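Q: Rrf2 family nitric oxide-sensitive transcriptional repressor, please. Structure only.
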Amino acid sequence: MHLTQSTDLALRVLMLLGARNERRSAAELAERLKVPPQHMAKIVQRLRRDGFVSTTRGRGGGVVLAGGVTETPVGEIVRALEGPGEAVECDSPPCPLRDGCHLRGALRAAQAAFLASLDQVRLRDLVADPTGPVLLSLAPPASAGAPSLAEEGL
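A: Structure for Rrf2 family nitric oxide-sensitive transcriptional repressor:
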């Protein structure tokens, strides 16, 4: 299965946020992951809508992981971001092999196995060593103007 670029970046955002329990601005996330700020804003909106992050506007605002997200299976995150789509489209336009083809079933089984293997991994596993130190180097401590979650008592 091939993940969309948006899902790939969303997973990276969750990993960066999971490396430190600190609020980050969408602009900082865009800079760290080398993507346009407008694209990052859309990714953050999607993650917020799906309940994976919380956002706060204004001075000292930003993006933070929602409670308990580090325990979420990666397969669940991918399902939410990718939607229920199929690996192949057989109905539009109608495929002439549709009635006698086994490809769709085989690809459905492969997709289910792919997601089942991701269900064995939790977001916290993706930020563990040896990845953790690399993530921390990409996400230095929040600036002095933005309070950490620990300072806010969250």
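A: Brief note, in case it's useful. The beta strands are 53-56, 62-65.
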